[in-house]
Amino acid sequence: MNTVLDTVVIGGGAMGSAAAWALSRRGRQVTLVEQFGPGHKIGASHGATRNLNPGYHQPDYVAMLAESLALWDELEQESGVQLLARTGVVNHGPGGDLQKIAAALADAGIRAEFLHLAEAGERWRGIRFDQQVLHICPTAAS
Ligand SMILES: Cc1cc2nc3c(=O)[nH]c(=O)nc-3n(C[C@H](O)[C@H](O)[C@H](O)COP(=O)(O)OP(=O)(O)OC[C@H]3O[C@@H](n4cnc5c(N)ncnc54)[C@H](O)[C@@H]3O)c2cc1C
Q1: Mean pLDDT across the chain, nearest whole number?
Q2: Which residues of the chain have pLDDT under 50?
Q3: If you measure from the C-alpha of residue 35 to the centroid of ligand 1, how many angstroms do you get, rounded to a whole number?
Q4: Cα 135 to ligand 1 centre (Å)
Q5: Which of 26, 52, 72, 91 has the smallest CB count inside 10 Å?
Q6: What's the pTM?
Q7: 53 lies in the same domain as 118
Q8: Half-sphere exposure (CA, 13 Å, Cβ side) for 67?
Q9: If you take atom 46 of ligand 1, which residue's CA is the nearest one?
């Protein structure tokens, strides 16, 4: 007997699962094929945590990250499970990259602020801040 499938995604890691979710939301009948069991440790997506840092200076990349944050919100609402701990990110260092990152974040509507060194030292005790400090504010869950 032949079976005709609409859309097949090979690999049920983070990328395949995200692709399958996006395709099914567009009305496709998706078959996700994974060679190992759920939560296996032989790929790159296992483990309990990942860091989601929107601090990049390429505007196209940051725009995709902003879109992904909205999709994480939707996934949390659909699943009823809190998936992101919205902590914010502090970036610290020399050079002009932080200015570019701040500009790219502003264009994408992600709130970020430069902090005075003393204020940063007060907020994150144990880190010695002696360069510029860019704090990417925690994104609000919708
Ligand atoms: C230790 C570690 C820490 C990381 N930390 C971060 C982080 O903090 N932030 C961040 O953004 N990223 C992080 N990454 C990267 C991120 O986790 C990976 O980029 C992401 O998980 C890759 O997902 P993937 O679906 O491409 O690959 P995988 O998770 O490897 O999924 C591929 C899947 O395809 C399956 N497969 C392959 N071939 C076949 C086949 N022929 N038939 C059936 N199934 C098949 C495999 O079994 C596997 O399950 C980290 C990665 C690692 C390893």
Answers
A1: 94
A2: none
A3: 13
A4: 29
A5: 26
A6: 0.88
A7: yes
A8: 7
A9: 11
